[in-house]
UniProtKB/TrEMBL annotation:
Pfam families: Glyco_trans_1_4. It comes from Paratrimastix pyriformis. Residues 1-32 are annotated as: Disordered. This is Glycosyltransferase. Gene3D superfamilies: Glycogen Phosphorylase B. Residues 23-32 have a biased composition (Pro residues).
């Protein structure tokens, strides 16, 4: 049962540094200036059926700026992510390799391809002859594997398949260490951070508009009773244990009462479900968790009466509609939680972030954390677990690192019994969420610093010029100076 309480009047500080604190350092420069880029290199970027997943969006943010520098480039993808900015969609459509397409015919005539980038888990790294959406008979002269993982060790099959590529591109130092600890030679593993389109994710140009498919509020998020003062915590994730949605809900419900002008919006989908966008199904899962954990009590208690009378409570559901909202039950004494499962086009995601005041994700593990960096690029203060990939970009200067209480065995069919992930601290999560809710000006300053750091380090043009092009130039120089090895494999630098 959640007791009635008044909002705190005291100021809560959590040791946020002043603006004189040092910003994140830029990526380490190459020891020697790279050779000029050979723009005649042929390159295939293979990300298969990634589509609008985080992997697919990441690949697009690599390929689109790269295409302006390398004319002989093609992509293997089932369907490029729809709903992207129109210019990006045009570029991806022109690069897509399909049987009998001009781009494919040109590249196939130039076999062997110079550089092949496989943007997949290592178990799906290519073998040649390649028989996929298109066909390539010969092994490319140089094969790069781009991959990531969210737990503390690589499975043996990943290590074995990594031997079949010439080098590995890791998005974070966390993933880089995983490959090195597994015995992959250091000269074969390279840190290549994930790029972000900071021109798209820019709060200065983003308009807050109603999101599809129906205009529910002028502030883009369907929050019952929202006022100009409502503080909105936003979390963006796929519904799975690794993302820590259970920890987030527990912390929010235990820390805030139904009388407080605060809301938690979870933009999500049911990962692996046949009906992933069914909001009613997601809400039933949430309510079952709240009831099983004893976090709500539905009876004639004073708390239930408060919830019934509180104007923030939505209307009750239609029990005959399986997709109806169930969190509108007036007897649920809890702060507002909104589950948003509607698919939002990439081009409109900035509006979703701008409709919130803070971002929160108590994840158990990330290879990188695309929604986190998108939120930071939109100037949101981000509360994120201080473990795995996000430690490369989220510090106490640019966000709110969430301490962990050690590691636990990871669960889920994609993980092995010996693999572990983090256990974020619910106690610290409650305290930080309360501090961000209370000290809003301080949080906004953290958000401004976050955007500056992302623009300086992770903008897709920065990653292209400072990391990708120099690396491709070095590879190209080696390909031009060395004869092909007998097995077609060129040892990495």
């Amino acid at each position: 049962m959640i007791s009635k309480r008044k909002p705190p009047t005291r100021r809560i500080d959590i040791n946020i540094p002043t603006s004189t604190s040092p910003p994140l350092s830029p990526p380490s420069p190459l020891s020697l200036p790279p050779p000029p880029l050979n723009t005649s290199l042929s390159l295939v970027w293979d990300f298969g059926a990634a589509g609008c997943t985080g992997w697919g969006i990441e690949a697009m943010n690599f390929v689109i700026p790269l295409a302006s520098r390398l004319p002989n480039i093609g992509v293997i993808v089932g369907d490029p992510c729809p709903g992207s900015p129109k210019d990006d969609e045009m570029v991806m459509t022109g690069l897509q390799l399909r049987r009998n397409s001009p781009t494919y015919e040109i590249l196939a005539s130039r076999e062997p391809i110079d550089i092949w980038i496989s943007h997949k888990p290592p178990t799906r790294f290519p073998r040649f002859p390649y028989r996929g959406l298109v066909t390539f008979e010969q092994r490319p002269r140089y094969v790069i594997g781009r991959s990531m993982l969210e737990v503390d060790s690589l499975p043996p099959e990943w290590v074995a398949r990594s031997e079949e590529v010439d080098e590995i591109w890791a998005p974070t130092t966390f993933v880089e260490r995983l490959f090195l600890q597994a015995g992959v030679p250091p000269e074969k593993v390279h840190l290549v951070p994930e790029p972000i389109d900071t021109a798209l994710f820019d709060p200065a140009v983003t308009k807050v508009e109603p999101l599809p498919p129906c205009p529910v509020t002028p502030l883009a998020l369907p929050i019952p009773g929202r006022t100009a003062d409502t503080f909105v915590f936003l979390s963006v994730f796929k519904w799975e244990t690794r993302k820590g949605w259970d920890l987030l809900v527990r912390a929010f419900v235990e820390e805030f009462g139904p009388h407080e002008d605060v809301a938690l919006v979870m933009h999500t989908y049911l990962y692996g479900d046949a009906d992933p966008r069914n909001r009613g199904k997601a809400e039933r899962l949430l309510l079952r968790y709240l009831r099983d954990e004893g976090l709500v009590k539905e009876d004639d208690t004073p708390e239930a009466a408060i919830a019934r009378d509180f104007p923030h409570a939505p209307l009750g559901p239609d029990p005959t509609d399986p997709g109806a909202s169930l969190l509108g039950l007036p007897s649920v004494a809890m702060p507002r939680i909104v589950i948003h499962t509607d698919e939002v086009p990439v081009a409109q995601m900035p509006a979703l972030y701008k409709a919130a005041n803070a971002f929160v994700l108590p994840t158990r593990g990330e290879g990188f954390g695309l929604p986190i960096v998108e939120a930071m690029a939109m100037g949101l203060p981000a509360i994120v677990t201080a473990w795995s990939g996000p430690t490369d970009f989220l510090t106490s200067h640019t966000g709110y690192p969430l301490p962990i209480e050690g590691l636990r065995n990871a669960t889920g069919r994609e993980f092995r019994p010996e693999q572990r992930w983090a256990m974020p601290s619910i106690t610290h999560l409650r305290r930080i969420m309360r501090a961000v809710f209370t000290n809003r000006e301080q949080a906004a300053e953290i958000g401004r610093r976050a955007r500056q750091a992302v623009v300086e380090r992770f903008d897709r043009r920065v990653i292209l010029e400072d990391v990708v092009l120099p690396r491709l130039a070095l590879i190209g120089a080696r390909l031009n100076s060395a004869p092909p090895a007998a097995n077609g494999v060129h040892p990495p630098d």
